Amino acid sequence: MGIPSERIDRLFALAREAVVDDEYDRAREYVALARRIAERNRSGVPAEFSRKTCDDCGVYLRPGKTSRVRLRPGRVVVRCRECGSTARYPFE
After folding, report:
1. Where does Zn(2+) bind (predicted)?
2. Between the CA of residue 72 and those of 47, 59, 87, 88, what are the distances in Å?
3. Which pLDDT does position 49 carry in this prediction?
4. Which of 16, 40, 45, 69 has its CA 20 to 30 A from that of 61?
5. Edge-to-edge strands of the sheet including 75-80?
6. Is 87 annotated as a binding-site member?
7. How far is 17 from 77, CA to CA, in rounded Å?
8. C-alpha dist (Å) from residue 4 to 23, 26, 36, 81
9. For residue 47, what pLDDT is reported?
10. 3-state secondary structure of 1
């Protein structure tokens, strides 16, 4: 694990804490900074974090606070409460 991946992990941890404290703008800044570090170093955002952030508005998704999660046959539907975008992920 290199320095960029450590920084990305730390920024997503800070974004999670900011959402718990109801500071959504600060969480968006942490997520944007983590994505920028990933782009600059060509490492990419880990899959565990990419599904926890909204692709449109960049807020860290926390079920019940910033997102709504529903189970459908063969998929999970996640809706952002900030911007209203919907993401669907397959599962078995």
Report:
1. 54, 57, 80, 83
2. 21, 24, 12, 9
3. 86
4. 40
5. 67-72, 75-80, 86-90
6. no
7. 24
8. 24, 20, 10, 30
9. 83
10. coil
Q: What is the pLDDT of residue 46?
A: 86
Residue ranges for the chain with pLDDT beneath 50: none
Domain count, the chain: 1
54 is in an annotated binding site: yes
> Helix/strand/coil (H, E, C) string of 38-67?
HHHCCCCCCHHHHCCECCCCCCECCECCCE
Do the beta carbons of residue 10 and residue 30 sit within 8 Å? Answer: no
How many Å apart are CA 3 and CA 54, to the nearest integer? 25
Q: Which domain holds residue 74?
A: 3-90
Q: Does residue 57 have a known ligand-binding role?
A: yes
Is 83 annotated in a binding site? The answer is yes
| Pairing relationship of beta strands 67-72 and 75-80 according to DSSP bridges | antiparallel
Cβ distance 39 to 64 under 8 Å? no
